[in-house]
Amino acid sequence: MSKIADWFRRERERGVREKLLKHAELVEETAKYLVEFMKKKVKENYVDDSLFTIIDNKEHEADVLRREILRILAASKVLKPEVRMQLARIVRQADWVADWALEAARLALALRQATVSTEVVDSLVDMISEVYITVQKTRGCITAMFEDPFKTLNLCDEVEKLEENVDDLYQKTRRLFVEKCSDLPIAAAILFFHMMDAIEMMADKCEDTCDNIREYVVSVA
User: 195 versus 16: which is more confidently predicted?
Assistant: First the structure.
């Protein structure tokens, strides 16, 4: 990866690596505040509007930074077109994680008055906690991909396993929801299912990000 590392150390292109790492940090922070927001919503039935604002702002910051990164990549005359495309895909997939986090928070806002059983709450909290670990590990993959391809590939494998754990928790939560929340109004039930889907999609996009990271490290190693 010496040529790629040299590119990222060039004075003219120096900011790209830092921007990619900052973008990953913003995505993780969006997920972190979502966990806090969702725990208050489902465990205390309290919607914290200030936390929602933070989630919204973090997601917006990530969007703005993604666009900056794409502009820099488009203007680069050093990287090969296929490498620029791979980096663009990585940042786009990672950005989807923050997008889905915001969507989950928006759906929770719409469910402001809805309550569900303790069993569903506990399962949902387990799921979103596992999603956050997946997001953290994905950020680690993005950090490692500039330095150590083998470490990166191992971290990507860990993300894939975590995503499978999220899938299992997702299925468990859906099953419990059907069993324990049959008295919930239909509109609220539909929104709740969409909220669970949004949370699960965060893990899916982490896996997609790591699939693109694998392609990148293999192509430049």
Answer: 195
